[in-house]
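Handoff note, outgoing to incoming analyst
You'll be picking up this chain. Sequence as last confirmed:
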Amino acid sequence: MNRSSNHGRQATPGQVGGSAEASPASTRAKNLPTPEEALSPLYRFYRMRQTARPVVNLLPGDELPEPYRRLLLHNTDMTTKLEGFHGDEIVLTVHHEIHLEGCYYREVVLRQKRSNRPVEYGAIEITLNALPKDIQAGVIEGKRPLGGILVDHKMAFESRPEVFFAVEPCAVIATALESDRQANLYGRVNRLTLTSSGEVFAHVVEILPPY
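Most recent structure output, in case you need it:
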């Protein structure tokens, strides 16, 4: 797929259901966003393609099967977690990107550097102006995942997972993750905040491949 700055039109919505979890420490469904709000960075690109959304079911984090539970139910960024799990540097492929009203949206696949194997598909909304200029430049370059850039620059931030979900792989997800699996995959919605101010600067949807 090519990087694009198109905005697109509304796509056919998929089914959504289940309960949700605000953080790894809690399974209460209080103060949670709706699924449409939670997955909005990803749904933006489905609208752009005029493609039906995948079927998503929210669920408590403690109901995630392994190894998804270990990889998703934590308060660290996914780049660090995936690099530790796979024992390899994680690099980025940007499929589409949009600059809109001070926000930067992109649809991405994260890959192992040595094998080029996909280890995550997702989308992110980043408020670039909340970040220092050198980090902004690294983000726009599109080679290193945001979490890796923040760690490399020793940026003080917090990772706050708010929703976990099962998703039925559609053609878009199957192609991105190079998988023909029909059974559910699993993911999370995470928000990154500045430690200094508590400001949310990134809204991330992360879907992992079959294990």
